[in-house]
Amino acid sequence: MAHRMLSGWISLFLLFLSPLAYAQPLQPQEGDWRPAEFRFHTGETRNDLRLHYYTLGDRSKPAVLLLHGTNQPVSALLADGFGGELFGPGQPLDVAKHFIIIPESIGSGKSSKPSDGLRTQFPHYNYDDMVLAQYRLVTEALGIKHLRLVMGYSMGGMHTWLWGQKYPDMMDALVPMASQPNALSGRNWMLRRMLIESIKRDPAWKNGDYQTQPPALQTANIMFSIATTGGTLAYQSKAPTRELADKLVDARLAAPVTSDANDFIYIWNSSADYNAMSGLERIKAPMLVINAADDERNPVEIGSLEPALKTVKQASLFLIPASAETSGHGTMMSARFYRTALGEFLAKAPSHQ
C-alpha cells in the first residue's frame, strides 16, 4: 500500500513538474558559414561573407527553415509567444521531431553587415541576395537537400515567397506570414523611404562616416514602429488617454539605441526591388499564408493578396481577425492565434523526404 502511495505521489510530482520543464528557455546551437566566394546581385563578390545561424533539434529529423523579420532578433522566435507555442512536445514544430534552422540574414545579427567595418562600402544587398545566402547555407554548409517547411515572418515571409519560386522542389510546404508577394508601394514603401531619409538628412550621419549614432536613428525607428506595428485596437486599449500614450512613448525614448545607422539604412532599403509576383506560377509546394486583418503594412482592404493567391497552385489564407489582443503587423509573434491552423496544414501536406 505504501509503495502504491509513493508511486502515486511521484507521478503527481512529475505531472506538476513537466510544464515547468517545457517552459525552460530553448537553447539553440550556433554556427557561422563562410563561403569561399559570394556574388551579390550587383556583380560584387566577397570572400569574407559570414552568415550566422541557429539550430534546434536533431539534424536527422525533417528540416524546417525559419526566417526572421527586419531587425528582428532570433530571441523573439525563441520566446514563449512564438517558440513556446510551436516548438514544444506535440506542437506543430516539435523540436523532438524537427531540425529547425534559423539563419540571421545578411545585414542582421552576427551575420556580415556594414557596421563590421566597411560601412557604406558594404555591397548593397537585396532580398535575392539574402535568399541565395540562405539556400547556400542550407545546402552547402548543412548538407540538407530537402526541407519539410519554409516559414517566415514579415521580411522572412517575403523571403518565403521567393523561396517557393526560386527553389520549388526544395520544400514540402510554405508558410509566409505578415507578408504579400506584391512589390512594395503605398504607405508601406513611403514609410520605409522616410526611415532612410530621416537618417540620411540628419547632419550627424555624415554620409555614413559618423562616430556616434545619429539622433534621427532612434526617433525614426520609434515613429515607424508605432505607425506600422502594434494594432489600432491594441494601442487604443493600452493607451486610452494621452497620459498613458505618453508613457508608452517615454518608455521607448528611454530605451538604449542598439541599432547602427548604416545597418539600418541598408536593411530597410534591401526591400526596394522586392517583387515576387512574376514567379508565383512556379510555386509547387502547398502554401498557407498567415496574415492579420489589422496588419498596418499589409492592409487587407487594398485587395491585392486574393488575386495573387489564385495564381499559386495550392494556396490558402488564414486571416486573424483584428481585436484588442492582436498587435497588427506584430500579431505573428503570438503563435496562439494560428498554432492550430498551422498544425492542421502541416498534417495534410505530403512529405517528400
UniProtKB/TrEMBL annotation:
Species of provenance: Symbiopectobacterium purcellii
Segment forming the signal sequence: 1-23
Domain of life, source organism: Bacteria
Database matches in PANTHER family: HOMOSERINE O-ACETYLTRANSFERASE
Name listed for the protein in its UniProt record: Alpha/beta fold hydrolase
Pfam annotation, one family: Abhydrolase_1
Keyword Lipoprotein among UniProt keywords: no
Residues in AB hydrolase-1 domain copies: 62-300
One function term, GO molecular function aspect: hydrolase activity
InterPro entries reported in the protein's UniProt record: AB_hydrolase_1, AB_hydrolase_fold, HAT_MetX-like
Keywords: Hydrolase, Signal, Transferase
